[in-house]
Design a protein that fits this description.
By secondary structure, the protein is an alpha/beta fold. Helix content is about 50%, strand content about 15%. It has 17 helices and 10 strands. It has helices at about 15-20, 20-35, 45-50, 55-70, 85-95, 115-125, 145-165, 180-190, 210-215, 220-235, 245-255, 275-285, 310-315, 355-370, 385-405, 415-425, 430-445; strands spanning about 1-5, 75, 105-110, 130-140, 170-175, 190-195, 260-265, 295-300, 320-325, 375-380. The strands form 2 sheets. Strands 1-10-9-7-8 form a 5-stranded mixed sheet, sandwiched between helices. It has a 5-stranded parallel sheet with strand order 3-2-4-5-6, sandwiched between helices. β2 (about 75), α5 (about 85-95) and β3 (about 105-110) form a beta-alpha-beta unit. α4 packs parallel to α9 (about 210-215). The longest helix has 24 residues, at about 145-165. Bound molecules: 5-phosphoarabinonic acid. The site of 5-phosphoarabinonic acid has 14 residues, from loops.
Length: about 450
């Protein structure tokens, strides 16, 4: 369903270099399987495709049906791991134009993923005159961006439907016992879904965190979980020749050790854009610590060949690319014949656009390889549900293994706190420490 093609890597990474990482991979595998490494408490996603809560899964499907029937607009409030995976699924499996296409499911808008006033106002505007349901998602239940947005939407719904009516339209996805959001949900009586304790935000898309919005979009979440399960079965072995997720993890580390410090995740389908956003968070937060880590970047080709193609081809030689090659990504689209042929394109007439896209892909892989940019190819059979689930698991496992091989804890994100501490101090959050920090920061800013 998803496999690695190393054809274009041969001149950059030898089989001996890959094999040299085997002991480290073995160690990483042990840490993942036995939960013995740093962050071992956050490995719930590893067995999730087998042991997810089936009752809650049914409740998600029921809630999704209720939401579909009771609104035209579904607002999903969350940031980072609490929204990227769901958005990625909707755009990849349905379309980036999901909201504009005719369908029998609600429009889905995302809020609380920034502190931008204009962005929040836009979503409010889109809700005008429409029936609205809201899903607020926060594992910690304390994140500022979604908390602000939820305050606004709670008020909107209560004004529009009354407290009782709003209660029927607000769905909360959070920790089972901790956080302000959990407290609020209990107090108000909102239907609540649980992000398991042992699954961190960026590994949580296959929990209710991602599954409820995905199901509301009319996507079959049973098939997603089936795809993830297939991946969990396939990638359970610690064999570099049989486990492509582990092979990918090792190849990244070989390249990193040879000075390739930036990875560009590339795809020739614009519908993959949010998958790349999800992937960036997954790898960036998991590996970028202790002054180490490959910088994760992303491109959609051929679009970005007209902006970033130059630097990839001839800039500093610190980049490698991982290209997602999606087979069967859309319906056939034949390039028309034009009898004038003023644009000289009749040599393409009758060919499918997918064929032209494939040639662009092959041409670029060869050009970038010539430019000393190693290309890892990951083939995906389709953009269907099972393939999405499979791919999510593939990258989660690869990321955990890659992080352990690199020597970091792939499940924490201590660096994210630095901006938060400064922001709270500058915003005047009460507390002695905040006041002291505020004075210090203001002095630096003046
Ligand atoms: O991976 C993580 O844990 C984080 O990036 C979170 O996803 C993000 O900060 C949102 O956190 P929360 O779900 O607690 O609001």
């Amino acid at each position: 369903m998803v496999r690695l093609d190393g054809r274009f890597l041969n001149s950059f990474v030898s089989e001996d270099e890959i094999k040299a990482f085997e002991p480290k991979l073995k160690e990483a595998h042990g840490k993942i399987k036995n939960k013995t490494g740093e962050g071992g408490d956050f490995l719930g996603w590893y067995t999730l495709p087998y042991d997810y809560d089936k009752d809650e899964f049914e409740r998600i499907k029921k809630a999704a049906e209720k939401i579909k029937k009771s609104c035209q607009v579904f607002v999903v409030i969350g940031i980072g791991g609490s929204y990227l995976g769901a958005r990625a699924a909707i755009e990849f499996i349905k379309s980036p134009n999901y909201n504009l296409l005719s369908k029998d499911t609600p429009n889905i808008y995302f809020a609380g993923n920034s502190i931008s006033a204009s962005s929040l106002s836009d979503v409010l505007e889109l809700c005008k005159g429409k029936d609205v349901c809201v899903n607020v998602i926060s594992k910690s239940g304390t994140t500022t961006e979604p908390a602000i947005a939820f305050r606004v939407f709670k008020e909107l719904l209560e004004e529009k439907y009354g407290k009782e009516g709003a209660r029927e339209r607000i769905f909360v996805t959070t920790d089972k016992s901790r956080g302000a959001l959990k407290g609020l949900a209990g107090k108000e009586g909102y239907e609540t879904f649980v992000i398991p304790d042992d699954i961190g935000g960026r590994y949580s898309v296959l929990t209710p965190c991602g599954l409820l919005p995905i199901a509301v979009a009319g996507i079959d979440i049973d098939k997603i979980m089936a795809g993830a399960k297939l991946a969990a079965e396939k990638f359970s072995v610690c064999d570099i020749d049989k486990n492509d997720a582990y092979r990918y993890a090792v190849i990244r580390n070989v390249l990193y050790s040879k000075g390739k410090k930036s990875e560009f995740l590339a795809c020739y389908e614009p519908s993959f854009r949010y998958m790349t956003e999800w992937w960036k968070q997954l790898f960036g937060e998991s590996e970028g610590k202790d002054q180490k880590g490959i910088f994760p970047s992303a491109v959609i080709y051929s679009t970005d060949l007209h902006s970033l193609g130059q630097i990839v081809q001839q800039g500093e030689r610190t980049i490698f690319e991982t290209v997602i090659d999606i087979k069967n990504a859309g319906a056939p689209f034949v390039i028309p014949f034009d009898k004038e042929n003023a644009d000289g394109l009749n040599f393409l007439a009758g060919k499918d656009l997918a064929e032209a896209n494939r040639k662009a892909f092959l041409a670029t892989v060869l050009a970038h390889s010539d430019g000393n940019v190693p290309n890892i190819i990951i083939e995906a059979d389709s953009n269907k549900e099972d393939c999405y689930g499979f791919m999510v698991y593939f990258f989660e496992l690869a990321c955990a293994a890659s992080g352990y091989i690199l020597g970091v804890n792939p499940f924490n994100q201590p660096g994210v706190e630095a901006y938060k501490k400064n922001m709270f101090a500058l915003l005047g959050k009460p507390g002695e420490e905040n006041e002291r920090k505020k004075a210090e920061l203001e002095a630096r800013l003046s």
